[in-house]
Amino acid sequence: MLIEPVALSDFFLSFFSAALIILLATVYAALYAWSKISGHRKFEFAAWLIYAALLICVGVFSYVNHFNDYWLLLSLLMVLGYGWMPRFIWKLCAATHDADTHHSHQSGDHHD
Amino acid sequence: MTEQSPPRWASETFWKKTAIWVTGGSFVLLVILSFDSMKQISAGGPRVPAYSVINKDISYRFDKAKQRYQPTIGEDAPLFGKTLSEEEAEKLVDHGKKTVQAKNCMNCHTLLGNGAYYAPDLTKAWLDQGWGAKESREQMMVNFLLDPEKNARTYGSNRKMPNLDITPPEAEAIVAFLKWMSSIDTNGFPHNFIALGEEDK
Amino acid sequence: MTLQAYQKKAANCWAGCKQRHTELMANPHLSGGQKLAVHYFTVAMVLFMAQLLFGLLAGLQFIFPSFLYEILDFNVNRMVHINAMVVWMLYGFLGSVYWFLEEESGVEIVGLKWGQLAFWILTGAVTVVVLVYLLIQIGSGTDTSLWLINEGREYIEAPRWADIGIVVVVLTFFYNVAATFAKGKWSGIAGVLTLDLVALAGLYLAGMFYVTNISIDQYWWWWVIHLWVEATWEVLVGCIMAWSLMKLLGVRRKVVQTWLYIEVALMFGSGILGLGHHYFWIGTPEYWFTIGGFFSALEPIPLVAMVVHSIYDAGAHRFKNSNHPALAWIIAHAFGNFLGAGVWGFMHTLPQINLYTHGTQWSASHGHLAFFGAYATINIAFFYLAAQQARGKVWMGGELANGWRWKTAAVLLNLGVMGMTVALLIAGYEQSFIERAVEGSTWAGYFAAQNHPWFMQAMVWRMVFGLMTAAGGGLLFWDLLEIGKGEQRPAAVIDSEAVAQ
Description:
The complex is a heterotrimer of chains A (112), B (201) and C (501). Chain B has 201 residues and is of the alpha+beta class. In chain B, 37% of the residues lie in helices and 10% in strands.
């Protein structure tokens, strides 16, 4: 058997932790981005706190969904992917817009 | 206008190439998997039995090795008392499938779990305990399809199937289609389903 | 009212439509392509109203099963409900592309006459299909029924003759787009858009044949449904958004196009093989569990990327916006897409839980919010952009005359859809629990779940929120017809540097 279905008593936990994974991953991404924008350390701290909660949710989700052998790779993928992705996207934003802001500052021509 | 160009990994060309490779790669993989899937789900293949399976007794049991429910094919049990050749069986199931489409069954029922949610799933309808006993099942199904209002099975919900002007040959064909569909290996869906005749096993 | 009174009313209505059409064709603010786009948008809104109406009828039948029994049965109402949805989305997309085609390519549309003809043919065909759905409904179990009445495959029920018509119309549309870009400027957006249209049309062919084997049937059927909704439509919307961002917010082309490519990589990278999550239970091999599960977990990544990017933009720029309704709907899109596709999707997508949620109201809950959040919202936003231009690039920001109307419509629609989604979620939760897990999906189990108080109450609440949605929809239609009329203030001018290459 490639999968072991969620137990009846764990339905709620499965739905709830799955929803929280996506929600927390987004809140984490938002807080991380916000800490970069505002420069406040407290947002970065909050982002890490949320990330810790995300780890717990992935743990609960993996447990109630009976992840074993290669399915555990999915847990790893979520932990690393949702953690690293916002940072990568941020870098990508900065890099792609760099020429943009540079250009407008130089010419003093704000296109917004 | 002078521009600072972004690093290579953030450049337009890099992402253009990435987009093309990712899309192309995913699509090629999908095509390869589709070839394999087609081989496995062709009628008469390992997962979808040949249409002449309607000549046999079909059931649904928990498979200990696979840890899930699995269709089982048993002794001879010809539908409507007639043993059909492979071609005859295919023709009958085909007529049934066509009728199921022309009568728009899928916009109330689900088939293999896909469709609308106003009426019960038909994946294992042939095996449902609601038909009472194996001996009377075929006739009950035909009667129901011919006059669903009179033979309504609403389980107290008041939701009745409308009369869809199904003819007797169409009704028999639908039953054949449903019998054949119940023999498809659906990876254990639905779970925990106790088929007719499996109550005390 | 007497018959004559009705006739008079109909004649007045017809005269009004003709009057509006004459005004539209004489509108000096719109190009040829944009006038055609307004045609598409108008029919899209009419179909949206049809979607709401037939949704309400189908929803009522859950509460009162004898309502319209054997007159307009659930399967008919539900079919019109979902078909109207698919078609109005497509009308919105086609219109949006016609809208920006000339500005993006820098030349007039090549073969506009054919495009206009295709619009009338398509609209005529849609009308005939709907009338046949409503008046003839079903046929006998023969090929003739599938060719002329209804193919009986969810979402793509349109009879085969109409399928062929749709392909011809899409090819005409493709010709307009490709030939116009070929004659004018060929940009990155043009490239992505053209290839995406090829995929969109090609995939439709996967849904145009009949097979006896239902596993094979559903295998290809999902190619159309999934690869449209979770891949090619998303990229099409990406192109529309990319152009809008450049045009409205003055974001530079290079940045927009880079991000369009990033989006294509993320969406196709997760979406194409994400198709696997539909192949768990239809007879297909077990390896789809793994493929479907893994790629489904990747599908929220583009959504996370959008959140980061929008915060980056909000920090880096201070955008002035002179179209508040459009902006509000883009924000609704961001939240709706994230919740509907992301959160609601991931909650029930893995096979470990999907074994119980497959084919229950869970799918209905997810479907309502995801289609609304991902596509309806973006179409509505574009309709407001079009309305602004059509009224002569007028101000549509703060202190707008009758601003209550668009705001109320937006609140009613968003709250309504969210409310329906939550009600259906409760119904789906109960159904997966009682019917699927406890009762093992027998017919008795199905009805035990349908008769459960949680389910019955959820259906009542769905109706309440459905009425709210319908009220919002009606108000939206009215607002789109009226907004900006008599407005004298011009819209803020956006730096047009972005639009130049």
